[in-house]
Amino acid sequence: MDDRELWSRYEAANHYINEDLIRRDTPPPSSKREKTRREWMLGFLPRLGDPQRAFGAVHVAGTSGKGSVCAMVAEILRAAGVRTGLHISPYLQVATEKLWIDGLLASVEHYEALIEWLRPHAEACRGPEVPMHGMGSVALFLEHFRREAVELGVVEVGVGGGSDLTNVLDTRVAAITNVGADHLETLGPTLNDVARHKAGVIKPSCRAVVHASHDGELALLAARRRAAEVGAPLREVRPERDYGLLPPAPNGQTRLWFRSDRLHIDTLTLACGGDVQAQNAALAIAACEEADSAGRVDAEAVCLGLSRARLAARLERFAPGPKNHCEVVLDGAHNPDKLTALLGSLGSLGASRRLHLVFGGLASKRPGPAVTELVRRASTVTFTEPAVYAKAPRPATELLAELAIDHAHASAEPDCAAAVDRALSAAEAEDLVLVTGSIYLVGQARGRWHPPVTVLRRRSSW
Q1: For the packed helices 299-308 and 66-79, what is the interaxial angle rounded to 10 degrees?
Q2: Residues 272-310 pLDDT 10s
Q3: What is the domain-level CATH number for residue 292?
Q4: How far apart are CA 158 and CA 153, in angstroms?
């Protein structure tokens, strides 16, 4: 099958999820649903044969870091010999990124078969009030994991936790990273409300882990309350007691130490970039220990898993080469917490280098102080726009007027590829181009180095 046919078959299958289930029978924004999204999903599952019962799950909630934690958990379990599935959301370039098992994405042939399996069930249950697009996406990974005899599935929460579509799993371990203001309008109105939603992934039948630092205080308190309510054992992962940062490796990779009753590891080197990944790694190790009743997760599995656990477009670096004459960094920093972490990572990328910023976001998210600071630090700024199914971008011209009206070298270019070209044309060989904002935007930009059809063919993002 050549690339054209491969892409055509993928698009034909994906059209059902990303067009038919979004643009038909979609409830208007003012619609009041009588059921939560989780309740709709629970009603749908018996029709599917309850695929969620075929495997145990590690369920990860939090405002930031949950995708990285999921990737780390999945790779550690894989290294320990556990047949592992991974579901993260949203995807960057192709929908099969949500269907990962033991290091490989689902093939296009498997994806087509899953869509055809889903279609009659979705058509029988769809309606104006039914969140069938999200339900269909969850059903696909549940069935994929069942068909492929996954032992443990590692699943990232979509939004919130307690009422999320994914909160239907046979959860063995619930992990909570932190609580921030992202999705405050839907989960709030207060941060305590957001924390309560995220702690809702803790169930009576599971164990729970939470990162316990000053920044994670709301998450910690909510997790304690929820664990006490349902009688779930809760493990708190604390910096300087359970883990700590070490000086970076010579190539700049993040390193840490880790201690627990089972493991004493003096040096761990991470594939994921940025100091914030140390706390994600510590939480991931704790989650794996709690999920592992057979004693398969040892120091060797942890070291190997973390050395290969990475997420595309999370502080992803592209060295100078045929596609770019200077270094380019892609980072899907789409909320205030992620943008703040990105600002903290700029020093490790080279504080003295001239920065050329490409930024774009969705209309639903207003840029905050961290974006203003990025703009201030940049020698040139190009505002652009992500292209997403059923989600409007914030116009590049609006971002320009709001954030950089007095910047001497700021411009608007709605086309993402053209915006990256513009930033590169302004950069010298020793400079740095940073593409950030919407996760959808950086996914589009990533196609310069890893075309989506190549991801499909390789069944890998790399």
Answers
A1: 130
A2: 888 889 999 999 999 999 999 999 999 999 999 999 999
A3: 3.40.1190.10
A4: 15
DSSP assignment of 372-383: HHHHHH-SEEEE
Sign of the alpha-carbon torsion through 141, 145, 146, 148: positive
Number of H helices, E strands in the chain: 17, 17
Residue 177 contacts residue 192 (beta carbons within 8 Å) = no
Is pLDDT above 70 for 182? no
| Distance separating alpha carbons of residues 215 and 191, to the nearest angstrom | 13
Asked which of 262, 290, 308 is the last residue of a domain, the reply is: 308
pTM: 0.93
Question: Residue range 137-156: average pLDDT?
Answer: 98
The C-alpha R_g of the chain, in whole angstroms, comes to 21
End position of a domain, from candidates 270, 289, 308: 308
pLDDT at position 259? 98
Listed in sequence order, the DSSP H helices in 127-250 are 132-147, 184-187, 191-199, 217-230
